[in-house]
Specification:
- Among the domains are: about 135-300 and about 420-445, Citrate Synthase, domain 1 (Orthogonal Bundle), CATH 1.10.580.10; about 305-415, Cytochrome P450-Terp, domain 2 (Cytochrome p450-Terp, domain 2, Orthogonal Bundle), CATH 1.10.230.10.
- The protein is about 60% helix and about 0% strand.
- The chain has helices at about 10-15, 20-55, 65-70, 100-105, 115-125, 130-145, 150-160, 165-175, 180-190, 195-220, 235-245, 250-260, 270-280, 285-295, 305-320, 325-340, 355-370, 375-390, 405-410, 420-440, 455-460, and strands at about 85, 90-95.
- The chain starts with 9 loop residues before the first helix and ends with a helix.
Amino acid sequence: MEPGLSPPNPPYAMLFYPSCPSKLRLLTTPSQSLKETFAAKLPGELEKVKKLRKDYGSKVVGEVTLDQVYGGARGIKALVWEGSVLDSEEGIRFRGKTIPECQELLPKAPGGEEPLPEGLFWLLLTGEVPTEEQVRGLSADWAARSDVPAFITDLIDRCPSDLHPMAQFSLAVTALEHESAFAKAYAKGINKKEYWSYTFEDSMDLIAKLPTIAAKIYRNVFKDGKVAAIEKDKDYGYNLANLLGFGGNKDFVELMRLYLTIHSDHEGGNVSAHTTHLVGSALSSPMLSLAAGLNGLAGPLHGLANQEVLNWLQQMKKAVGDDLSDKAITDYLWSTLNSGRVVPGYGHAVLRKTDPRYVSQREFALRKLPDDPMFKLVSQVYKIAPGVLTEHGKTKNPYPNVDAHSGVLLQYYGLTEANYYTVLFGVSRALGVLPQLIIDRALGAPIERPKSFSTDAYAKLVGATL
């Protein structure tokens, strides 16, 4: 235990392994550092929200137009999300920090180049940049919690190989409800002030098990079904890469650390984040809440987009061959647009500049694979597409988003099964949505229930005659 920290809180510590004191200490000593950091900040956060609502609760923060109502609630200010805010010009900020700042400030593995996702999880939950010691402790805690129940492995093994990997992933996460400390404690009756603590423990257990579950699906569907064991002294990104079968490639390990970090959180209004928050507001467990979010992530307008980008790029490569001239790329872009399709990976609901997540992946590629033919193609599209899309005039943001690049990097290192990519996105997204779920329960967030009207009722509200 770190100097100055009090012993683990017995009611929560003993909840998990009362018959195994040595394992109990292994599990709780590192996690208490994060848990106590959050608990220490909680009274101040509660007071801040209480004062804000008391002094400004009646203040109008925006207006809602009928176009927004019928346009998917786009831009309506209606959610609280502490971890990140998306600025149309600067891109995503995690607790106020840009991606380059996170790459600089967050701890790295010994000799590593990219930030560890454990550090981002800590930052998203507490608002503080953790120390190296704290991140090492969190890595060890997740590794200690990583054992997956046998019935979950059996469940995945029983899935037909042609069942989409995301459906298998969601199924396994849903089944982990059997292990939910929150659900069991709630059934017995607990004080509302304790909700966050059980949500925290469930979230930690869930995150810890995701690499093994994700790797089991990958190895079953695409390989020999065999999955390596979690290495207890290694970090989260390394273990995910190793379980997938790529642990021997240090650059792929670094890519996984970067991928997990930059794909984790993107405000609370996207489908996977909002769905997790919404289902959680009904006091569903973190397992059920995340599974619901994963089902949203599986859609082609959300997490499946990077797979669509890669398919489009591969089709372009077949069409243009080795001709990466400006004219060849321009002609192909126009052929895509003139056929009524969009250029996948370009445009964003909020951003009006190049996505910083795209930039971080491009910089990685420039260091690691500058001569790769597919990366050269991506670079040419990056050079040409904004001008074509601007001339086309139907895209508010003619610049690339994160999906325009990630598939090419994964392909380069041999993870070529694009049908699987959204599962990796799902592992990462858990790191972003579960901190907010803990915060929701800590702040006593109510069940979400906006008001709806029929079209006739809206017409009446705006004075229209239909």
